[in-house]
Design goal:
Structural class: alpha+beta
Radius of gyration: 17 Å
Helix content: 10-25%
Order of helices and strands: HHEEEEEHEEEEE
Distance between the termini: 19 Å
Number of helices: 3
Number of strands: 10
Length: about 200
């Protein structure tokens, strides 16, 4: 199984190098993006706190969430805010999702044509971080600090078409700081991460 992951990692890195413009002229930002991707592919899991904003167009919802993700297990998302729904827990295992709480309901309807809901968003962001086609990457200043931005989308899609993902990482710790998912140029999910720790 370890050999499979090594081959997969090599293939992903090769694809990413192609997307970023080739191996010989790779920039420091592109190399950093590949290093972070390699580290994520080797992790057993991660934990974090995040603020997730889901934009349905006419309705916008913001939640505080505790995240626990395991590569060989389940993803657990526990809502911490707002207070009236704190404690609701989503468990995702092999494509199955269950919401747990005392009769309370959280808006989890689809955000896009593929059926993605806010509950699905964090695993989708992590999937892009580990293996999404890198369309662009570079350093940018956010809140007076330099961060790495990585933009992913489908290889055949033009910018602003289909689903796309933007990820921001701390260049020193390699922690995921922020993630956005958009559909046809409209941002449907924004996640601000804190205390992102890999295992």
């Amino acid at each position: 199984m370890k050999k499979f992951w090594s081959v997969l990692l090599a293939c992903v890195m090769l694809l990413a190098l192609t997307a970023c413009g080739g191996g010989a002229g790779i920039s420091p930002a592109e190399q950093l993006a590949l290093d972070i991707r390699g580290e994520l592919l080797e992790t057993a899991g991660c934990t974090a706190q995040l603020e997730l904003t889901a934009d349905y167009g006419q309705r916008v919802y913001t939640y505080g969430i505790d995240l626990s993700w395991q590569r060989e297990g389940e993803t657990v998302l526990t809502i911490t805010a707002p207070e009236n729904v704190a404690g609701i827990t989503a468990r995702i295992l092999e494509g199955e999702t269950a919401l747990e709480y005392d009769g309370m309901r959280v808006e989890t309807g689809p955000l896009d044509d593929s059926g993605m809901s806010p509950v699905d968003a964090v695993p989708v962001l992590l999937d892009y971080a580990e293996g999404g086609y890198i369309a662009a990457c570079g350093m940018e200043t956010v809140d007076e600090r330099e961060v790495l931005r990585v933009d992913c989308r489908e290889p055949e899609a033009a910018a602003g078409e289909s689903r796309a993902c933007s990820l921001w990482f701390d260049p020193s710790t390699h922690a995921l700081l922020r993630g956005e998912l958009s559909q046809d140029g409209f941002t449907v999910i924004q996640c601000e991460f804190s205390n992102f720790q890999t295992q």
